[in-house]
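User: I'll paste a sequence; please echo it back and then give the predicted structure.

Assistant: Echoing your sequence first, then the prediction.
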Amino acid sequence: MYQMNIAWENKENNLKNVENAVVQAAKNSADILFLPEMCLTGFSMNIGNTAENDFYTVNKMKNLCKIYNIALGFGWARTCGEKAENCYTVLDNNGNELSTYVKIHPFSYSNEDEFFQKGKFLTRYKINNTVFSTVICYDTRFPELFQGICKNQDVTAVVIPANWPAKRASHWRVLTKARAIENQVYILAVNCVGNIGGVEYSGDTCVINPNGEIIACCDSTQQIIYADLDYDIDKLRNSFPVSADRQIELYKSIL
């Protein structure tokens, strides 16, 4: 996962930054490199300048996948009528699309919902033998979403790309660990870092295993972290079957 210091609304500079990271990750034999939410622009609501209808970002990333033989996950904004969609796309090492998730919970506290449409669907995709799903940033505050992702017990890793500000860093650390523990899944939480568009980001990118243990993490600098997803999730879930005790029908009636 690449914890980026994103150049504000500067796609060309960020593309150069991403390519350097891709080269490094490929040299280290990574299967996939995950980038933050809106990785070529920062968390911008200036959708007239940042949102795309020509798949510029996707096409650039496809080229990187093919050149360096590595899968990529990246955030971008897609034009959708008068608004946009906050997207996260995952491509395989040949540049083929595995998944595009649209953020289900726009961050209304900062008026994101005025510029971005809500997503309506969950996604799942496989890389080698690992089944992944994706949520984006603010989605992390909604545990129901994760329970929906994990209800069939086949998803073993949830990727959380984000632009999560430093002033709420303590929430990020608690929520990401909680989502791992309560769903017995890996959490791959990839944030940005530095001053981006006048907002401070502290990073705290991390990989949390299904037992809630942090197995890799970043400090407050731009950097890549690596992790092998080799925890025996089936053994954990069979020995401590939390999901079997969920009262789904009762929860529906309460909600």
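The two ends are 36 Å apart (CA to CA). The mean pLDDT is 97.
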